[in-house]
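Quick one: structure tokens for this chain, please?
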Amino acid sequence: MIESFISADSHVVEPADLWTTRMDRRFRERAPHFEHGAAGDHWVVEGLNSLPIGLFGPMVSEKAKGGIDDRGQERRHEETRPGANNPEARIVDQRLDHVEAEVVYPGLCLTLFGIPDAEYQRECIRVYNDWLAEFCGGDPKRLLGSAMLPMRGPVEWAIAEAQRCAKLGLRSVMIPAVKRKPSYHEPVYDKLWAALEELNLPIGVHSGADDEPLAIETGIPLHAQVCDNKMFMMQRSLALLITSAVPQRFPKLRFVIVEGGIGWIAAQLRFMDHWWEDHHNWMQPKLTEPPTFYFQRQFWATFEDDRPGILTRHLLNVDRLMWGSDYPHTEGTFPFSIERIRKDFVDVPEDEIRKMVRDNVAVLYGIR
């Protein structure tokens, strides 16, 4: 059995003072910050719903010790596991969890795509990307950062940020999982797709990171909201990207569906293929091949604990499926990744296990 892995989906928890100390002075009074309350710390950003810090990292150490107590989301930022924003502590946790390297996505910053003010969003994202490059620069062979692109303003802003972040050493870019106005099929984005083809960076679309403000709603069970943000959003994202004809028109682009699991993908692709078979002669944008063709050519997908998805791997493409630990989130596998993998991959040939837990991500991101 393989004893070490590469995580295709891990996270940070951003430092509490990141924006209050680094934002341009014209935005400093509006900087994202934490507010301390009786029910724990909440992240406050202009234009977004406030969010409790609890689900983003502070509970994972408790899980590692045997279980999470009944405080739930009522946590303080200082309870965050040190490896969530300290690269030296991060490497210690990687070794503890048999992880050789990680693709690193935002924590709280996943929600920044929902900021309505374009200039303010651009500055919030710039600050985050600068810090992420510094964080991953602590060990760039083990920490591969994914930069966020500002998508509210002119498309030239997103292009410039992608080019800047590539020079900073970040290894992929992120776009909102679902983009409504304008949508990805519209010509305004063609310059962005062409620029990203030239940069040859994977394009991540992550659960919980669409272009509307994320909310934890009262009166709706949290379990249901998590399903919507983690799975259903990614189903919409996959459908939107393929039917936009962007993969068809830009065949060198590589998209990653991140943290939505994979057990649903085969069923959705079959439905999309069936619809294409009946309607492709008149539907716009026009696809010359069925949706599964574009998925198998240009899409990758990550999962952390998905035995049903592993069992459907041959309906997809084993070379496109990538395990991730989701560190430091509690729904991830840290620090029990090796036990989870042994359980989920039982009866799977070792060469296929190796592809899904290390080789596929190594090839996609050029990890040597």
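The radius of gyration is 20 Å.
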